[in-house]
Amino acid sequence: MEWCLSMPKVELHAHLNGSIRDSTLLELTEGLVGKGVIDISEVEHIIKKYNRSVAEVFKLFDLIHILTTDHETVTRITREVIEDFASENVVYLELRTTPKRNDSVGMSKRSYVEAVLKGLRSITSVDVDFIPHCEDSKSLFSSVPAIGHVRKRIYVRLLLSIDRRETAEAAMETVKLALEMRPFGVVGIDLSGNPSIGDWATYLPALKFAREQRLYVTLHCGEVPNSVEIKNMLDFRPQRIGHACHLEDEHWRQLKSSKIPVEICLTSNIRTLTIRSIEVHHFGDLYKAKHPLVLCTDDSGVFSTSLTEEYKFAADSFGLGRREMFELSRNAIEYTFADSKLAILFRSVPYPRLKSVVEKKKE
Ligand SMILES: CNc1ncnc2c1ncn2[C@@H]1O[C@H](COP(=O)(O)O)[C@@H](O)[C@H]1O
Ligand SMILES: [Zn+2]
Fold it and tell me: ∠217-235-193 over CA atoms, to 5°?
């Protein structure tokens, strides 16, 4: 586990509200139980259950969203989630979240994203780089006196998610917001939410607009069987897709020839019973076919996992050694939605040195 932990890693599929620390979730639950807003006997079984079906996971998200409705909490969970990823040597993180409107607390989609940005700015335990193009890459290489402890640095970019329960108008609002927030590190759009709800075509105008405006697009694709949707999503040619669990032969052929990178979430797929067992997980086949892949957590809080554990899980399940895992992690850099300057920086560093380059020795 040690080398999986110390290896520099790239996380491209992590949902903010799915990545909350257990201790924070518990604290927030107790707070609302105390205020009589929720009845613990009604939610206990959802929180405590280990393997949850896809439907049950979305029930849990509804509960989590009740706990995280105000700006302060959104700021807090953003800070904690980024600190947690940095602590396990994630050097580049694309964090996604669904901007939410909540009139009862004066929250608009815009103020939600501002609360996330406030969380990014409030981090003091590690250096967070989230403004594109602001970094003079040379400064990363400049020698800083090697005294004192090492200070970690994490590069964070944001994706704004469209929830499959939303209207076409709300989705367009999210895309426009992403454009406005581009100077603050928003680089793309994600389509997620309960895969059994809604029709993805509702969001096509918003997704097309995003692409025209050169925002990157990633889609949750094939989390449940839906042949027509999967085909249409692949035809759309997003820059990445998440999951790809229920593809049929013709979809696999299309995916492989398209070279669309796949965000692989092993624990999430196994725990939601989306994939029967790890032995038959499509990671094995795609890896052998040298298809672009990136290991991700999806919801580290909800599934009690971490990126380190996902790497270990893949290594143990598919018989991969350190070198292969290193390569997997390094290749992920190619599939980021990072600005070109940052991508060049990451590519220019020999991978084993990446961690030490992004870390700064503190005086
Ligand atoms: C398990 N697989 C999954 N499939 C689809 N969507 C998922 C998901 N896991 C999370 N989300 C999406 O992310 C939201 C929580 O984070 P944010 O409130 O956006 O930060 C969920 O409500 C859902 O829309
Ligand atoms: Zn996801």
Answer: 45
- pLDDT value at residue 134: 53
> Rounded to an integer, what distance in angstroms lies between the CA atom of residue 103 and that of residue 100?
10
What's the CA gap between 218 and 164, in Å, rounded? 14
DSSP string for 150-180: EE-EEEEEEEEEEETTS-HHHHHHHHHHHHH
Block residue for tokens 């580290």? 300
Cα 120 to Cα 133: distance, rounded to the nearest angstrom: 17
Chain centre to alpha carbon of residue 29: 24
The whole-angstrom separation of Cα 101 and Cα 336 is: 28
Among protein residues, the one with the nearest Cα to ligand 1's atom 23 is 193
Rounded CA-CA distance 291/253 in Å is: 11
pTM for the model: 0.93
Cα(248) to centroid(ligand 1), Å: 24
- Kindly write down the DSSP assignment for every residue of 304-321, as one continuous string: T--HHHHHHHHHHHHT--
Q: In this predicted structure, what is the pLDDT of residue 220?
A: 98
Give per-residue pLDDT as tens, 247-264: 999 999 999 999 999 999
Residue with CA at minimum distance from ligand 1 atom 7: 193
**Secondary structure of residue 219 in the 3-state scheme:** strand
Q: Judging by DSSP bridges, how do beta strands 153-163 and 186-192 pair with one another?
A: parallel
ipTM at complex level: 0.99
> Which ligand is located closest to the Cα atom of residue 61?
1
Say how far apart CA 52 and CA 46 lie, in whole Å: 8
Residue type, 23: S
Helices 168-180 and 109-121 sit at what angle, rounded to 10 degrees? Answer: 40
- CATH topology for the 2-361 domain: TIM Barrel (3.20.20)
pLDDT tens column, 103-137: 999 999 999 999 999 999 999 999 999 888 654 44
How many residues would you count in the chain?
A: 363
Tokens at 10, concatenated: 């790239």
Active site residues: 223
